[in-house]
Amino acid sequence: MPAVVSSAKDAVTEVRTRAPVVDHVLRMNKHYGTVRGGQLAGAVTYFGFLSFFPLVAVAFSVIGYVSDAYPDAKANLTSSINSTFPGLIGTDPGKINLDTISSAKAGVGIIGLVTLLLSGLAWLDALREALRQMWGLAPEKANVVVKKVTDVFVLVVLGGLVLVSTALSSFATSFSETALGWVGLQGNTWALLALKVLGTVIALAGDAVVLVFVFSRLPGHKLPWRNVLHGAVLGAVVIEILKLLGTYLVGKTTSNALYGAFAIIIGLLVWINFICRAVMYSAAWAVTGPKPTLEALTVAEDDVLDPEEAKAVSGKALPTAHVSLLRVRAERRSAEQKALRKRQAAVQAEAKRRFYAFFGVLALVAVRLGRRGDGTSRR
Fold first, then answer.
1. 324 lies in which domain range?
2. Least packed by Cβ within 10 Å: which of 110, 237, 294, 345?
3. 3-state secondary structure of 93
4. How many CA within 13 A on the CB side of residue 206?
5. d(Cα 33, Cα 28) in Å, to the nearest integer?
6. Which parts of the chain are coiled coil (predicted)?
């Protein structure tokens, strides 16, 4: 048996040497397990789920105001949600009734916006801490007010990127269909296939841009650009696959009679968790390759980078990052040694002062006792 195990290990080592992609996948999976990526994804899922319903409320509240100018806006948004979350919209118990939201658009919009802001900031904070743990960084210590203001800005930018990405994808698809009609290719199988591919490519590009922003800005620490790009592309591909499979995955969950009235909620939780896991895996992919980063090596050694160390290695690849880390630690040790010598000198000076003071007091006492003795002898 030991010989079999040894042979298997040698075979795996040989495969990893010959196929860098396989080695990268194994390193990514090990890193994901080391930082407990599943638990991190679960925390992000929780706050993401809390943010979903306020987001839908705000979206349909806005649609309620613009539907007069754009009659198709409500139908397009409903179709988009139903394509990913079948059965979520409707008039049955446990489903979101759009007519109710539209009829109370002012109140729903205000409440939804406030709730979305609170839950969105919590989700953003959970995602940031998850990425910082994924990259071996110590917990961030920052001014609470400055942090929240920055988070609001990041949340707005992130929401804007997602909105622009979705709008561009929808516009490109609808415009392409119109263009096919102009050239007489409407209904052509190959033309429709090319149109589908175009929409997917645009969606992939949009997802990749969003992930690049998240990975490069949210944690407050930069990985080498190549690593960020690789991780963002992988995440975009996986997320698009999950979008395509979303109808099937959520449909299987919601059709299970065991879940009863909670089927829609459970299906939504499952889908959001898959997306969060995809983001965590893509972050692990970024930090572990295409070449290992100092951050990945730090996690492997069960260590973390403090703020000063993280700032020194931010955006640097090996071996430059390692040299910077060694320089920071050497300077820190030098500063600590200087501070220690300074404290020791201060202690020694204080000891000398007390020593001289003590003997000065003794000398003074001796002089006074001597004077008293002289006075007594004279009497």
1. 319-379
2. 345
3. coil
4. 22
5. 9
6. none
Tell me how crowded residue 214 is: count the other CB atoms within 10 A of its CB.
Answer: 24
For the whole model, what pTM was predicted?
0.77
Asked if residue 56 lies in contact with residue 115, where contact means CB atoms within 8 angstroms, the answer is: no
Rounded to an integer, what distance in angstroms lies between the CA atom of residue 218 and that of residue 152? 12
Structure tokens at 20: 């860098």
- Give the dihedral of Cα atoms 27, 30, 36, 42; nearest 10 deg: 70
What the block records as the tokens of 350 is 């204080």
Residue 346 lies in a domain: yes
Distance between CA atoms of residues 192 and 246, nearest Å = 22
7 part of a folded domain:
no
- In order of 9, 42, 248, 252, 269, the CA distances from 266 in angstroms are 41, 14, 14, 11, 5
379 residues of the chain, pLDDT tens digit each: 566 666 666 676 777 677 778 888 888 999 999 999 999 999 999 998 888 888 777 777 776 666 655 666 666 666 666 655 656 676 666 566 666 666 666 677 788 888 888 888 999 999 999 999 998 888 777 777 888 888 888 888 887 777 777 666 666 666 666 666 666 666 666 766 777 777 788 888 888 999 999 999 888 888 888 899 999 999 999 988 888 776 666 666 656 555 555 667 777 788 889 999 999 999 999 999 877 788 888 888 878 887 788 887 887 877 788 777 778 777 777 777 777 778 877 888 888 787 777 777 777 777 777 666 655 555 5
Same domain, 329 and 289: no
